[in-house]
Design brief:
The chain is α/β, with parallel strands linked by helices and 156 residues long. It has a single domain, classed as UDP N-Acetylglucosamine Acyltransferase, domain 1 (3 Solenoid), CATH 2.160.10. It has a seven-stranded mixed beta sheet with strand order 1-4-7-12-15-17-18.
Length: 156
């Protein structure tokens, strides 16, 4: 009986994953080989472009008002927050939203809990460390760490 229960739970897990991938791929108009490994939250799906082989882990939040382009083979780890929208603090107390597009080039890995802020371009083959707060663009094949994020090395 216990073996049957384990098989049923395993099957249900597989079905949930398949339904989640189907649901998100339709809403985000992305290729079939994009993988969603948990729940993600996104705003303005029509302003999000996703390439082949992208992997989203649980808890990813995409707050997009202008444009987000994610190229091929990008891994976005758990609880990553990506936003292209901020407030212009010089115009406070008025809340004027500023939107700048974000580009994530191919073969990038964004670590758990990282925050990607407006106007950033992440270069090809970069690693953004867990917990990093990235407010500036990177070159290709670089490692960025910390808050605020700074270049910690170059990948070969």
């Amino acid at each position: 009986m216990q073996n049957l229960l384990l098989k049923a739970m395993s099957y249900w897990s597989y079905v949930k994953q398949a339904l989640r991938n189907w649901h998100y791929s339709i809403l985000l108009s992305c290729p079939k080989n994009v993988i969603f490994l948990g729940k993600i939250t996104f705003y303005n799906a029509k302003k999000i472009s996703i390439g082949n082989g992208v992997r989203f882990n649980d808890g990813v939040f995409l707050n997009i008002g202008k444009k987000l382009i994610i190229e091929e083979n990008v891994t976005i780890s758990a609880n990553v927050f990506i936003t292209d929208t901020t407030s212009d603090v010089e115009l406070l107390p008025k809340h004027v939203h500023v939107r700048e597009p974000i580009l994530i080039k191919k073969d990038v890995w964004i670590g758990a809990g990282a925050i990607i802020l407006p106007g950033v371009t992440i270069g090809e083959g970069c690693v953004i460390a867990a917990g990093a707060v990235l407010s500036q663009s990177t070159g290709n094949h670089e490692v960025w760490v910390g808050n605020p994020a700074r270049k910690a090395g170059i990948l070969k």
